[in-house]
Design brief:
Blueprint (H helix, E strand, L loop, with lengths): L22 H6 L13 E2 L4 E3 L5 E2 L5 E6 L8 E6 L2 E8 L12 E4 L5 E4 L5 E4 L9 E5 L5 E5 L10 E2 L7 E2 L4 E5 L5 E2 L1 E6 L2 E12 L5 E6 L2 E5 L23 E4 L3 E5 L10 E3 L5 E3 L1
Antiparallel strand pairs: 1-10, 2-7, 3-4, 4-5, 5-6, 7-8, 8-9, 10-11, 11-12, 13-22, 14-15, 14-21, 16-17, 17-18, 18-19, 20-21, 22-23
Pfam family, one: B_lectin
InterPro entries: Bulb-type_lectin_dom, Bulb-type_lectin_dom_sf, Kinase-like_dom_sf
Protein name: Bulb-type lectin domain-containing protein
Length: about 280
């Protein structure tokens, strides 16, 4: 398309990769102020995610990170959803602290900390980091995992922070439920209060460490259901195995950690969702 020192060109057709195009450009070749939202999966300290202006999109185009309002609510949240199904939100950063307007901004600091600011520049939500980064970036992976890492290091073992360690109401393949006995980090799933309020509801799904660890469903502090112990193939409370579901997942227990790893991706993106009514849906 370009030759010599040429820096721009005019074409008679839409040019580019569709997974990274804004809808108005992909459909009719027209640009808007939101067109840049579809151009990157990574941000650095010089960039921001602004409500109504920009989105972070995974490399393969399966997931988007941006601002949304659930249902008829006017509150604004920073969340993650399926690109093909924006109403299917799988993770919310500020689930307990909504924004009241459309002026939210997400930044990554030079130390490697994600910070969500309100219109008044007050901190609404932020991440914890165990060590200071040298050249940090935030990236939305094709798995649906939002990570903070060094720009030149994409080894998962070296991630500075990742959303997969902090589930909301949904588990995606690769997410863990359990506890790290060294760092004391505990991961569990909790329902939304309602379909229009992603704040922590009364139901939770977690790894019970009393006795031999097993997955339990709780209402408040009361256990209402158990998955049974792990027999190496599935949890014993399951009557039969289902391919590519909870039964084919992994369970790990040692002196450093105990956790359950959900599913795999051979059927696309199966997910486990804990609804406000405590219905655990495998989709």
């Amino acid at each position: 398309m370009f030759s010599g020192d040429q820096t721009e060109a005019k074409t008679n057709r839409v040019v580019g990769t569709y997974g990274y195009m804004s809808p108005e450009y992909a459909s009719n070749g027209h640009f808007s102020v939101k067109s840049d939202a579809f151009s990157f999966a990574i941000i650095n300290p010089s960039q921001s995610i602004r409500d109504g202006e920009t989105l972070l999109i995974s490399d393969g185009g399966s997931f988007e990170l941006g601002f949304f309002s659930p249902g008829s609510s006017t509150n604004r949240y920073l969340g993650l959803w399926f690109t093909k199904s924006p109403q299917t939100v799988v993770w919310v950063a500020n689930r307990d602290d909504p924004l009241s307007d459309r002026f939210g901004v997400l930044n990554i600091t030079r130390e490697g900390r994600l910070i969500l600011y309100s219109r008044s520049s007050s901190i609404v939500w932020s991440t914890y980091y165990s060590r200071t980064a040298e050249n940090p970036v935030a990236e939305l992976l094709e798995s649906g995992n939002l990570v903070v890492r060094e720009a030149n290091d994409d080894n998962p073992a070296n991630f500075l922070w990742q959303s997969f360690d902090y589930p909301c109401d949904t588990m995606l393949p690769g997410m863990k439920l359990g506890i790290n006995f060294v760092t004391r980090l505990e991961s569990s799933v909790s329902s939304w209060k309602s379909s229009e309020d992603p704040a922590r509801g009364e139901f939770s799904f977690l790894l019970d460490r009393n006795g031999y660890p097993q997955l339990v469903l709780k209402k408040g502090n009361k256990t209402v259901a158990r998955a049974g112990s792990w027999n190496g193939i599935r949890f014993t409370a399951q009557t039969k195995s289902k391919p590519d579901s909870i039964s084919t997942s992994e369970f790990v227990l040692n002196e450093k950690q105990g956790y359950f790893v959900f599913g795999n991706t051979s059927l696309g993106f199966p997910r486990l969702t804990l609804t406000p009514e405590a219905f655990t849906a495998l989709i």
